[in-house]
Amino acid sequence: MRPGRMRNITLMSALTGCTRLLAAAAMLLTLAACNTTTEIAALEEPTAAPITGQTNDPAPGFENVVAGSEEDFILNVGRRTYFTKDSSALDSVAMATLDKQAIWLNSNPRWLVKLQGFADDSGSASNMETLSQKRADAVMAYLVSKGVDANRLWAKGYGNDREVRDCTDRSCQVQNRRVVSNLRTERDAL
């Protein structure tokens, strides 16, 4: 073998050895960074509750909802009560929702509730306002009948001013025929 060729092979071997060393150092730095990221994530993000496949599993991101909080009320009880067209009568589904609300409210007496009634656009503005007020009053009367202190509740009908969706489809309009139970820490204006 010629001396020049031998020098090139030795230089390539040395370069390959140096490249290997650099690659190993890069991998160690990468692993160290991953470990640090995992440690930081463990400190910043609470451990998720195990998912068991049951219908009452917590929704992802809501595993740590505090009992008695507004989030607890919205997620675990439900704050909307729906009505049939041109009616303020409570059906069995509405009463089931309100039964859950009453139990929760009686267990969490610090909360006040503003009952906001709404209607779809199937009549005049004044008729819809009257109907939405009757719906809010019906919800209030039912909650009071279940032991919720009337001084914690107030009702306001908004008619069709605050529709969820403006639509003509029946399945869409039902979303507008509702009373929303909004938790408050102090009484606000009607």
From TrEMBL:
Q: Which Pfam families match?
A: OmpA
Keywords carried by this UniProt record: Cell outer membrane, Membrane, Signal
What the entry lists under InterPro entries is as follows: Bact_OuterMem_StrucFunc (IPR050330), OMP_bac (IPR006664), OmpA-like (IPR006665), OmpA-like_sf (IPR036737)
Recorded GO CC terms: cell outer membrane
Q: Where in the cell is it found?
A: Cell outer membrane
Q: Which PROSITE patterns match?
A: OMPA_2, PROKAR_LIPOPROTEIN
SUPFAM superfamilies, per database record: OmpA-like
All copies of the OmpA-like domain together span 70-187
Q: Which residues form the signal peptide?
A: 1-32
Task: State where it is primarily located.
Answer: membrane
Q: Which PANTHER family match?
A: LIPOPROTEIN YIAD-RELATED, STATOR ELEMENT OF FLAGELLAR MOTOR COMPLEX
* The protein's name in its UniProt record: OmpA family protein
Q: What is the lineage of its organism?
A: Bacteria, Pseudomonadati, Pseudomonadota, Alphaproteobacteria, Hyphomicrobiales
